[in-house]
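Q: What does the assembled structure look like for these inputs?
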Amino acid sequence: MQMRAKWMLLVVVCFTMLLGCAKSQTTETSTSANKEPETAQTTPAAEEPIELQFYYPIAVGGPLTKVIEDMTAKFTQKHPNIKVNSVYTGSYADTTTKIQAGIQAQQPPDVAVMLSTELFSMLDTNAVIPLDDFIAKDSSFNKEDIYPAFMANSQVEGKTYSIPFQRSTIVLYYNKAAFKEAGLDPEKPPTTWEELTQYASKLKKDGRQGIEIPGSGFAYWMFQLFSLQNAKDVNQNLMSEDGKKAFFNTPENVEALQYWVDLSKKHKVMPEGVIEWATVPTDFIEGKTAMMIHTTGNLTNVKNNAKFDFGVAFLPMSKQYGSPTGGGNFYIFKDIDPKKQAAAWEFVKFMTEPEMAAQWSIDTGYVGVRKSAYETELMKKYAAEFPQALVARDQLQHAHAELSTHNNGKVSKALTDQIQAALTGTTDPATALKKAQEDADKALAPFNK
Amino acid sequence: MTTAKWGERLKRNGFAWALLLPSLIFLGLFTYYPMLKTAWLSLHQSDLATPKPVFIGFDNYITMFQDAVFQKVFTNNIWFAIGTVPTSMALAFVMALFADKAMRGRGFVRFAYFYPNMIPMIAVANIWLFIYTPQYGLLARFASWFGQSDMSLLGHPDTVMGALVVMLIWKEAGYFMIFYLAGLQNIPKDLYESAAVDGVGVWTVLRRITIPLTMPTTLFVAIVALTNAFKLVDHLWIMTKGGPDNASSLLLYHIYDTAFSFYDQGMGAAMTVVMIVLLLVLSSLQFFGWDKKIHYQ
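A:
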């Protein structure tokens, strides 16, 4: 009798579990059925409710999920029929991983912020749509208003695939108090590589470095600034525009890497080895380094925490000024209802409107992506109080696309590994870049067939 | 005849099987099925250049074993295991002996040893990142008394692995101590009493009673420690990203990089298979080989 009761219980348990599985399966199929595009009508009727899945990463400090929530709430106020479910998806890498998993399961989000350099990976996985039709049809969106340096990473073969959102460049931060102490004019930051070395050696003392340049995770990005500044031609970048070729091993690049290595090995104004990305701003704030080269994304952090007067300047030049851009763009995904794509476009447009771009820039330290953002009252007021915020914007005329190619993960890692090898003294710059070029060529070979 | 046997067997074992069924379903669904699927995927080329997987046999494995980065990462992982496992186990054993004997503040001692294990790996990585920071990090301040403050342990290929090994030992030893404590308490007290009556020295007691009788614990801890040496990679995201130049990269981290930053899923799957086989061999060696040499009583 008791045995029987046990059996019954077991059967019941098993059935409930099976039911649970079956149920989740049916809901899944029904949602995917809903996603079948209704080809008859593509323009969204104003009153028809639409829900958007929006994935976004956060890469700088501060309570930014709240800022994003506020922005999406404002959007829904303006477009009551579109509800945006904003999902914070961790770092850039986590976000991309989640999106890739979604793409494989044919359940991508509708709109997302990802690194601008993911473009070729997104195209190779056939995941995103070009936005040219939206841009052409939409008179309220002026593409020319977006800084061309930021658009460079969005475009390939004449098509635009993403809209810049949280974008940065690299600038020189310097400690004005330390400049005074070393007998340097605090209003005259170094403008050339020679000056940078000279100033740094004057600023260096016991317990204080002359300059710090991070070499950990984003070494390829930091290297790109030296490379752009030292390039023979102003428009010579580390890669071809179609993302199929890498140009790492050039005499100018070897010089550029040699200069970076020399700052510590020869001139002794920078700590030896690879300097950790995250500790550099802390070192600067603590006065342990008199200058640092870092992303503008840290501007707000330094402003809030530095107890001394600091300046922000253009990166010193070799043959010309130069900096890569960085950061994230909006992408709209393929294989979703065209009505959702249209709604997503409205959302992207709203999020990059001048007022929004200005507010986002002030809250984060990212550069406002549109020229008109700097014409808003909000930004004018902020810039008057804090002129350092304008330096990155002004430097944009010398900025170029961030390293972005097909097979981007492998190509940028090939460069980062070898830069680190050169910085730690395992190899010399010429051998390092030769090796990086070989690895990159190998990774790009399938795309050059 | 066979049918009768089957019927009898089913009667005897059926209930046990039925009880196992739910967990077997889940294990199959979330462990064995993905493993088989991974093995199958590892025989394909599936990366950004080939959106539709192409069957290529064992090419991924051949490329993998020739790949300098894979070789480096693999050797790194072996050194990481050699560095962390014996030391953390020995330390755990000594700590357990002390925590077992400590008369006063027993609870406090145990807690103090165990607490690193309660902190998530990510937090540990952040703490140790600060400890290792040049110039004003904890270690740098300490070293500055000896006139050495600019050392950047995480920034040099020669020192980075050692620095990470020390951190992991700190984190793991307390965890293993708990197992040893339990093991020590299972040793019958009369053994020690009779040893004391016979006037046997402390070292002999340790060598002849304590160590042999905690061997089952040692076996278990060794398995956990070895697999952990291959499983724990969270700290790499925070501290080094596998750098400089892959000097601190570990197998699992490299697998993640390959599969999710390079989108090279075929290769990622092949490496995963290597990792699974390695862990299976390690644990089976212990279960089938060493098992016989252990005194359970």
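Residues 60-293 of chain B form a domain with the MetI-like fold fold (CATH 1.10.3720.10).
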